[in-house]
Amino acid sequence: MVYKPKRNMVGLSSLKKYRLISFLITFVATALVLPAILFAGDNGPCIECHTKQEKLNVLEKAKVDPISGEIKVASMLIDEAIYKASAHGGEDFFCIDCHQDLDGVDLTEGHKPNLKPVDCITFCHDDPAEDYLQSSHVKLMKENNKDVPTCKDCHSGLSYHYTPLGEKSPRDVPRGVDPLHRRLTVEACGSCHQDYLDSYKNNAHGQVTSLGYTITDVPVCFDCHGKHKILNSSDPESKVGKERILETCGSCHANANASFVKHVEHPQIKNITYYKTMLAAIKGARSNPENLKKVIKNPQTILCIVFVMYIGILAFTFSSFGLHSLLSWFAIVRDERKRKGHADEEQH
Amino acid sequence: MSARERDMLMKSNINYLRFRFFHRFCHFLIIISFFGLVLTGMPLAFRSYDWAKWLYELFGGYPTAGYIHRICALITFFAAFIHFIYLFYNISVKKKKGFFWGPNSLLIQPRDIFDIIGDIKWFMGIGKKPTFDRWIYWEKFEYLSLMWGTLVMAVTGLILWFPVQFTKIIPVSVASIIDLPSIALIVHRYEAILAAGFIFTIHFFHTHLLPEKMPVDEAIFTGRITEEEFKHERLNQFKRLENQRQLDSYKVAPPSLFVSFLTRLFAVPILITGLIMVGLMFSALLVWAI
């Protein structure tokens, strides 16, 4: 621990007055609160300054996103409660695990203004990356030479930072079980897979999440399809494939059976394309009977028929009974007028 | 009918019993459970509208709204159960006649076909308003659709409540073509829209919001109707009972002002709630159509 206040003041004399004062306050406060050297295993010194506006020289910084080129404003303030609740706020997790260039730094004079960009992948998030490289997303990218999502495509939307100023920071990314995080993943998947999101909303699960309830009791996309290693259902390792579907559904529905897992999670009842497929199959019944058989055996077909039937019942019931009500009202009013007319004649 | 004439009718001292306590109680149970079911279930059907989110949150959101929905379903089951116990007791034990045939039956009779034709003639202005017996044909239709609707909603609702247990009883080869829970969900959703839409428009406008009843037909709550109302609505029944000399046995004291007041206090907010619900549902249809 080194105390050299006089020399410091001389060295900073060229700074503007207000910066000097704020630095002084920060410095004195830092000097008073010990220890001044940052060690692994303690967030105390970081929290000490970074939760208090008056103790910081710089409250926010602009950052250029290396991938999107987007300019983001990151706050240097930490909301302790939100940080603790976040994915990075565990008991055995420390600031310098990510900001490694601060390990063992003397904080007496504060720390250097610009830290190295945090490397999320090398030491911590390497497993998901490996899983992701084996997923259908990447496979398709290689096969079709298409732009499929990178880490940031899904995760940047999730890096919410809840300071009163509203900036973003990956630090406070909510935990996987956080309803907000879960809701945002639905939107993230849906931004590319719009038709799957639409059909999911027609289902029992999707209708609840559509109302904004995304607690872990109600499955969002990744609960069934997996997080990083999303595979086509034909793949034996896929969470929604034949071999693992019992286990996937069974994680919520105890004793899920082989019939239960035949459930249609994405009903096409409001998808005009499926109706066209059905019509085409009927039209081509002679030339291609196999196709018709396939459509008939598809569980979607019966759902579409039931749906159309109900639309018909609704239309018929309300138009006929609506007409009945309307006509009876007219008739009542007409009779009343007639009666009044007679009454008037009698009076004359 | 002018307001004064209406008041005269209301003040009439001769009253007849139209609904016994058991039926009034069943109707009350159905009101309570039906509104609970509609208010907690309809947001799911109209999930993309803000009012649905608001309403769902009002009832505690997930999973509280779901629990309320299930409790109300159990009340509906109870009402249906005691109704069928009543029918069974009267038909099999007391050997009462007239449940399946005749003017007291709620099943469709040949007479109803003539009533419908008579009504159509009346609508077109080529005939007089037909006179009715104890049950008018649309009341029978409402009763039968309530029975059918309750059955459909109960079966599909139970499938959605216990999907694993229900799918266990169907073989895998069938399940891969006929997905029971998904069919149940679609049927449950659109049958619900049908039922709620029907009750909140057709039932309300045919029974409670008629020009001569506005705002509520108190008969189902107090059980009583005045002689004038009786003659106006169900002349055939009145004459029949008169001829059979049974009319006097139905005579009761008029409902007290307090009971009348309570009826309105309970029924008017319920009617308004139903009309708002159907308004929101209909507005959703308009938004979708546009």
List key phrases describing it.
heterodimer; A: 348 residues; mainly alpha; 3 domains; two-stranded antiparallel ribbon; 16 helices; disordered N terminus; B: 290 residues; three-stranded antiparallel β-sheet
Q: How are the elements arranged and paired?
A:
The complex is a heterodimer of chains A (348) and B (290).
Chain A: H1 5-11, H2 17-32, H3 44-50, E1 60-64, E2 71-75, H4 80-85, H5 95-98, H6 126-133, H7 136-144, H8 151-155, H9 179-192, H10 194-201, H11 204-210, H12 221-225, H13 245-250, H14 272-283, H15 289-297, H16 299-347
Antiparallel strand pairs in A: 1-2
Chain B: H1 3-11, E1 15-17, H2 21-45, H3 50-58, H4 61-93, H5 110-124, H6 137-161, H7 163-168, H8 172-175, H9 180-208, H10 219-222, E2 224-226, H11 227-233, H12 235-243, E3 251-252, H13 257-289
Antiparallel strand pairs in B: 1-2, 1-3
Helix pairs in contact in B: 2-3, 2-4, 2-9, 4-6, 6-9, 9-13, 11-12
Can you give a write-up of this model?
The complex is a heterodimer of chains A (348) and B (290). Chain A has 348 residues and is mainly α. Helices cover 49% and strands 3% of the residues of chain A. The model of chain A is unreliable at 1-15 and 158-167 (pLDDT under 50). Chain B is mainly alpha-helical and 290 residues long. The mean pLDDT of chain B is 89. At the A-B interface, helix 11 and helix 16 of A face helix 2, helix 3, helix 4, helix 5 and helix 7 of B.
Short structural description:
In chain A, helix 10 (194-201) crosses helix 11 (204-210) and helix 14 (272-283) crosses helix 15 (289-297). With 348 residues, chain A is mostly helical. Chain A is built from 16 helices and 2 strands.
Distance from N terminus to C terminus of chain A (CA atoms, Å) equals: 115 Å
Strand-pairing-aware structural class of chain B: mainly alpha
Whole-number average pLDDT of chain A?
A: 79
Sequence of secondary-structure elements of chain A: HHHEEHHHHHHHHHHHHH
